[in-house]
Amino acid sequence: MIRVLLVDDHKLIRVGLGKLLEAEAGIEVVGEAADGETALQLARELAPDVVVLDINMPGMNGVEATRRLTRLEPAPRILIVSMHSQDPVPARLLEAGAAGYLTKDADADEIVAAVRQVHAGKRFLSADIAREIALGNVGGSPLAKLSDRELEVMLLVANGYGIPEIAERLHLSPKTVATYRYRLFDKLDLRNDVELARYALRHGLLEDVPV
Questions:
Q1: Beta strands in the chain (DSSP E)
Q2: What is the pTM for the complete model shown?
Q3: CB-based contact 158:200 (threshold 8 Å)
Q4: Is the bond leading into 74 cis (omega within 30 degrees of zero)?
């Protein structure tokens, strides 16, 4: 039996994935979490075989959650399911120890196959992720210069979150978030949030287009 822990801050996503996986023979959903800290706690208590993990969560980001989950003993296999398909996001997660990466538009059969494959000790990448990784051009992109936290703040700013909302979501002070924001403008040679959103959209990093 493959024991699965679902981690996503959207309950609807967790419910949908849970029903999908529970319908499959040999797969059991043993728990759910809405953030990285809870995921770590449940992983220690429940010892899941596979953790299905989103990237954007309150508090601990997906990269750090992946790193810490893979240090547990026994360590679960991490399968990322995210809206973000273009580098440097997939590369950062794979470097952190993720065994698989899917986008949220993957069909049901692909998700089930990914859970089974990473549980078997293999890597699973959806076709679009594999193609992006194969391009191997992230090193020349300004995005490669961003830290994990800067990349996370960029995604939230680009999706229309204000500084107070980002501060609450990431458990940071508004002053710290503002510092990250201006650092992003400097590193990416941008002037404001609108240009940042357009930049993220152009690089395939935008989950929802701000209105």
A1: 2-7, 27-33, 50-53, 77-82, 100-103, 124-125
A2: 0.71
A3: yes
A4: yes
